[in-house]
Amino acid sequence: YIDAKEQDGRLTFIVEDSGSGFTKEALLHGTEQFFMDDTSRNGEAHYGMGLFLAKTVAEKYGGGIKLSNSENTGGARVEIFFLSSQETS
After folding, report:
1. Could you state, in order of their start, the residue ranges of all structural domains in the chain?
2. I want to staple 62 with a disulfide (CB 3.0 to 4.6 A). Which of 5, 25, 31, 83 is the partner?
3. DSSP state of 20
4. pLDDT tens across 19-37, in order?
């Protein structure tokens, strides 16, 4: 599930899946560089950089990122927000 909305001077992108959701540790550390909660994902295909890079870009443009578990699907939920162009100029 992917959604986008603009409200209160913020542009927010929301992504939810129907997987097992974030663990407690991932909710706390998921945006840290090289964090890999799932130890079965290692080596060539996964480096623990995706959420870290998303957070870095969002913060560069005055925004942020929020990790949670979806009430709708039970899976992971990621909200990435940016200040609207009127707010950044």
Report:
1. 2-88
2. 83
3. S
4. 999 999 999 999 998 888 7
